[in-house]
Amino acid sequence: MRHRNTMMHSRLLILFLTTAEHLNITAAAKALNLTQPALTRSIKQLEVILGVTLFDRLPSGVALTRQGEILARRVKLMELEYHHALAEISALEKGMVGTLSIGAGPVWITTILPSVIAAFHAQYPKIKVNLNSGVIDTLVPALMNGDIELVCSTLDFPSQAEIVKEPLIKILHAVVARSSHPLLQSPTVTAEDLAHYPWLVLANDHVGTSRIGSYFVANGVEPPTIAVETTSIGLFKILGEGDFLAHFPEQMLPDAEKYGLQKVSHAGTFWEAEAGIAYRRTTNPVRALDSFIAILRAKLSG
After folding, report:
1. What whole-number percentage of the chain has pLDDT above 70?
2. At CA 149, angle to CA 145 and CA 151, rounded to 5?
3. What is the C-alpha separation between 51 and 295, in angstroms, rounded?
4. Among the listed ranges 152-166, 227-241, 248-262, which one has the minimum average pLDDT value?
5. Tens digit of each residue's pLDDT (9 = 90 or more) over 98-129
6. Residues facing residue 166 across a β-bridge
7. Is-contact 71 16, C-beta < 8 A?
8. What is the DSSP letter of 6?
9. Is 75 helix (H, G, I), strand (E, B) or coil?
10. Residues near 161 by beta carbon (within 8 Å), at least 6 away in sequence
């Protein structure tokens, strides 16, 4: 890659990012109200400035090269920082306004964040909160890409230099089943007993699914069959219709009981994890994000 002192035009970066989002020159050109040749020339100009190839041309469109992926991620963060700057400027003129995007696991959405969001809204009524449900495998990439500004989940993922992880609580997972499940009639339940039944897991929750395997391997038992992947609400409802098993944080047990589900007492600890918040390290703190985190810390410390 050639290093140059050439100032890159913001327009080229906007054209590049739109193309990266569509992965199709024709579709991107249409979205930008440009001709396809004009967009192609602009992408080529940016590639010449950087001295690298940003897209691989394919019969069905284009694909980002490794260099293109890095640029796309950084440009998206630049765009996000630009919007943050506009929000802060507007805040100086009109008071706190804008949008705060948060990604959270099911236990946070159902038991922890509702009162935090209500308190935040009461203090900053002009800020819209976008709350997105997810698991580690979806939330961390969204944070890295700039799609969300705060992750509330277990912190069981590799540390990265640009991400701050702040532990706030411990989460103990429990095995859950419908109230008429045969295991709830047994005085003692072993790992081998748990392995006899089909399990339900959250969609894309590879970390949570791997913890199921870890528990059984640690107890010398072959891991059970994963029968269904679904959303958190779907998990509640499907569990009530068959002799399935699943694992939830114990903080979610009151919600599970509303669906006729109960905790299955068994030998050993299933999964204990450190949980808290994660956010990007920055030299320009976002006031809305800092305020939300302060309210969240206060709730959990109280």
Report:
1. 90
2. 95
3. 46
4. 227-241
5. 788 999 998 899 899 999 999 999 888 888 89
6. 277
7. yes
8. P
9. helix
10. 281
- Chain-wide mean pLDDT for the chain? 87
Smallest Cα–Cα separation from 275: which of 109, 82, 43, 45? 109
Residue with tokens 């940016």, as numbered in its chain: 46
Terminal alpha carbon distance of the chain: 53
Rounded-to-integer distance, Cα 107 and Cα 171, Å: 9
CA dist 116 and 122 (Å) reads: 10
* Residue with token string 């009981």: 257
The first and second tokens of residue 70, run together, are: 């890095």
For residue 211 the two structure tokens come to 């913890």
- The confidence band for 270, taking pLDDT boundaries of 50, 70 and 90, is confident
Continuous segment of H or E residues that includes residue 235: helix 232-239
CB atoms within 10 A of CB 31: 14
Global pTM reads: 0.64
Beta bridge partners of 102: 131, 150
Structural tokens at position 270: 């299933």
